[in-house]
Amino acid sequence: MLPSTQYWRLSERQVLNPNCDDEALLLLTLHSIGPRPIWRAGDVIEIQPHHPENVIDNWLDENELNGETLLTYQGHQQSLKAWLADRELSKINVGTKLSVVSPEDLLDKLPYLHKRSYSVASVSENGQLQLVVRLFKKDDQSLGLASGFLGQYCKIGQLVQGQIKSINHHHHIQQTQPIILIGAGSGLAGLKAQIAARNWAKQHGQQNIGDTWLIFGERHSAAELPINRLLQDLKEQGITKLSHAFSRDEQYPKYVQHILISEQATLQQWLENGAAIYVCGCLSGMGQSVHQTLIDMLGEATVESLQQQQRYIRDVY
């Protein structure tokens, strides 16, 4: 049976790196419409992106179609412009009048936009879904389809279609087990969810919650930035050890793999105590560099053994 469609209301959007000459890093908060789905740290949500209005308007003009025309399709009625919001807008020959093609034929010619997956940054027990999204800019300065929708085109209060997807192989780390969380940028989402899960368990009476070491990389070290205040808030919530890496720090620029190298003895001690490693973020760059650094430090056999024991989990994209 296919899962039912889930809708979420975007209730808050916070820029975590304002006034930085960077792509914006955003913390989004959404609330479920209807019964709240259950999800766990390590899960993802598949978001259905929408085009910005100007893209739809241009397509309508090119095809000489009236976007305000009401169409009934699969039992639902809305304007043609609304139907087109989440469709691939390829060039089609429908003539100069909408009447020459049925609504079904028109929409059947236009497949849905591909969904984009985002790591969740909260657990369902918190009562809200959080995401951390980097507002991607293309070479021509236009925005990425999904990040542009979530980060700019979607208005506060608007509904977003998103399906929770359980990633079972991300669920094997026990709360009593020490954990080393490694990530950068929007990878904070998966790390933040792991911390939230442990905090919730601790608050609800679970004993012997394992230690948490957060190793996180961003670009700027200014303490007043919301991203760095958020990291301090996470530390105050019970993180055992917090290590920063700022790639554009004027005095000591570094990446997360440099922390691993400088803290090799500590890393090995945590692993000897049974710690798991959870990496979240971009595969190219951070994900590959961290993986190679672990191999260089621990040996390929040890890294493979950690993976087989499900003590090295990579949530990379």
Automatic annotation (TrEMBL):
Signal peptide span: none
Domain Oxidoreductase FAD/NAD(P)-binding: 181-291
Organism: Paraglaciecola aquimarina
Pfam families, alphabetized: NAD_binding_1
Protein name: NADPH--hemoprotein reductase
PANTHER family: NADPH--CYTOCHROME P450 REDUCTASE, NITRIC OXIDE SYNTHASE-RELATED
Keywords (A to Z) from UniProt: Flavoprotein
Keyword Membrane annotated: no
EC number: 1.6.2.4
UniProt enzyme class: oxidoreductase
